[in-house]
Amino acid sequence: MSDSRKHRILMVSDFFYPNFGGVENHIYYLSQCLLKLGHKVVVMTHAYGKRSGVRYMTGGLKVYYVPLRPFFMQNIFPTFYGTLPIVRTILIRENISLVHGHQAFSTLCHEALMHARTMGYKVVFTDHSLYGFADVGSIHMNKVLQFTLADVTQAICVSHTSKENTVLRAGLPPEKVYVIPNAVDTAMFKPAPERLSREEIIIVVISRLVYRKGADLLVEVIPEVCQMHSNVRFIIGGDGPKRVRLEEMREKHSLQDRVEMLGAVPHAHVRSVLISGHIFLNSSLTEAFCIAILEAASCGLLTVSTRVGGVPEVLPDDMIVLAEPDPGDMVRAIGTAISILPRIDPQTMHLRMKKLYSWHDVAKRTEIVYDHALSCCNQSLTDRLSRYLSCGAWAGKLFCLVMIIDFLLWHLLQMWQPAEEIEEVPELVFHNREESWNVNEDHGLI
Amino acid sequence: MDNSFAGSSHPARYKWRKVAYGGMQPGFDDNHTDDSFLEGMVMNANVVKRNLLKVMLDTVSISQYLCIVTLVVLIWTYTLKSAINVSSLLLLDISLLVLGFLVLILTADMLSLSLLFHYFLNISFFTTGLFLLSPIYHTLTCSISPDSIWALTGSLLILHLFLHDYSGSTVKPPGALKNPNSLNASIVASVLIASRLPSRLHVFAIVLFSLQIFLFAPRVTYCIKKFSFHLHLCFSFVLIAVTLGFTYHLHGLLFVLLLGLLVSVNVLCPYWLIRLQEYKFEINGPWDEAKLCFDVTE
């Protein structure tokens, strides 16, 4: 335990509670575990509807919902320097030592990291998604990422495939990138108390019904599986543009009694849907790290998934059956899964998952990254500018210009609102941090 | 996190595995970069190696279409200057129709009487419709000044050339248009020009001529190209020569512009493309989004 170095961390992202998703959960659970380790964690995100201002969450997690309106897909409008005053105020007020940004597709994250670097703080960046190289959106996103990561102190990726992808996209040296996977809250995702009968095999699908998550593959696979195995039923949770296609498939093959569509499943009910099934089917076309698979495995379900992105790294081979993203291969994989189902014991699987994944482990490994980041030496503006220049013939000079203007604006702000005038928040100790929240059955995000 | 690994008796020489579960791998840092790093990366897998001569021969179809459009504009100019009379225009229309028909018949794989009859019926409906509509076109732009008409026609033609599908592939006939805006622009341009003409018969003849070319030329050139590449090349060169000849007689500057355009399209652009290909860097790997092998029909 590192009692000597207690960090004061600012987590920045556009994605946080009350949104539910991979990035949001990651930030929340990681922050909670870091708080347990004795560090101070503050989260900064944009306002969600009426939820604006400072809120305190479980364990004393302070969240700044900065009043910026989301503009495109939950991201704020990129104003480059508009967030400088508020970021500076938060950094000084909370006496932050390190800034941790999440998700490449988050404008608030990029802006905050840029300002933090200008002001001389150490930054760590975590990338949660895979991106391509060929389409217009990806090319621009990668350039922005290159800008941010040109000067980041350390970077974290959630899987080895994600590390390869990030290193190629941003041109980072691989030694700077740490691989720390996500984890799952095994206390919340417990298997059903009694084993389900295996007369009827129930396959559960919970995902957003969009192209990226392979809803089209489901449309091809489900009728064939229902035809081949007469005792199989499907439960599909989730909503999206492709729901219509699934309903049509149901009608066309008269599978109304064998395919149940639940619609959007709120996060709190995911476990109850999962424990009603034997097999979890994931048909995504791209996935950096699939937390849904972890949740299913923690509930004792056998997983069948497409072999894409970081999915092969997530579970040991006896807990998952992989298939190519091709309907024929997926049907074969489901058949294999059904045949090995008698050998699966949900409770054993759950206990194994507790050992394989733990948010406390993630927090400890992240702490090591923070220690490394803070031990890196400080750099002056001229050293940093040379890193930006190497980003590209035109882009490098543009980035340097952006950083110089940021530097000048920072000094202007220092004269206008000196740091001494900003009151620092005293260290607050929350006594309920002592009780182990793992045992608390109905802890939730309130 | 306790390192309870099954079956690892000598953690000192533990082999690094590309897995995410089980916590930190003993003996390795989280930023350890294995030798197998990026071994799944494939570079330039789908890049086609291009040959300069082949690219230049392929661009001949672009020049061919440019010349066809230039010839249409030339006919319009001559008609507006009253250098051609109605009867020669109508003769031109009929001969183009017959020629087009001949080309289709001679290069068709299967000659079926019903197909021929089908074509003939469509053409007659088309012609009759145009004849009936020509009085409307005649008075369409009476109140608009000629400058606006020339400007509009010019921009529409440029739009048409810009959006036209030049793929010239001999695999699929040019059926449903991916972007109908190019055809729309050309049809509107023809109607605008036709509305400037003195009599209804003029209007009918010009609209029939323009529409024939814009609607059927892609199909006819596709048939020629599919039949024989050499025939396609001969036809294109003859067309280019004829166009250049007529343009030279009409206006010197136009001739120079057209010549410059053809040279740049046929010679300069292929060379530039080959030069740029060296910089192509396509990356593929396990992180790519999977491509569905079946078509998604909505």
UniProtKB/TrEMBL annotation, chain A:
SUPFAM superfamilies: UDP-Glycosyltransferase/glycogen phosphorylase
This protein's record includes keyword Cytoplasm: no
Alphabetized Gene3D superfamilies for the sequence: Glycogen Phosphorylase B
Domain PIGA GPI anchor biosynthesis: 46-135
Origin superkingdom: Eukaryota
Pathway where it operates: Glycolipid biosynthesis; glycosylphosphatidylinositol-anchor biosynthesis
An annotated GO BP: GPI anchor biosynthetic process
Pfam families recorded: Glycos_transf_1, PIGA
This protein's UniProt keywords: Glycosyltransferase, GPI-anchor biosynthesis, Transferase
Name of the top EC class for this enzyme: transferase
EC number annotated for this UniProt entry: 2.4.1.198
Presence of keyword Glycosyltransferase: yes
Protein name as annotated: phosphatidylinositol N-acetylglucosaminyltransferase
Species: Dillenia turbinata
Automatic annotation (TrEMBL), chain B:
Transmembrane domains' residue ranges: 62-78, 90-111, 117-137, 149-167, 201-217, 229-248, 254-274
Pathway membership, UniProt: Glycolipid biosynthesis; glycosylphosphatidylinositol-anchor biosynthesis
GO cellular component: glycosylphosphatidylinositol-N-acetylglucosaminyltransferase (GPI-GnT) complex
Domain of life (superkingdom): Eukaryota
Alphabetic keyword roster: Glycosyltransferase, GPI-anchor biosynthesis, Membrane, Transferase, Transmembrane, Transmembrane helix
Main location: membrane
Stored InterPro entries: Plno_GlcNAc_GPI2 (IPR009450)
One Gene Ontology biological process: GPI anchor biosynthetic process
GO molecular function: glycosyltransferase activity
Aminoacyl-tRNA synthetase among keywords: no
Any one Pfam family match given in the protein's UniProt record, by short name: GPI2
Location relative to the cell: Membrane
Bilayer topology term: Multi-pass membrane protein
Family that this chain belongs to: Belongs to the PIGC family.
Name listed for the protein in its UniProt record: Phosphatidylinositol N-acetylglucosaminyltransferase subunit C
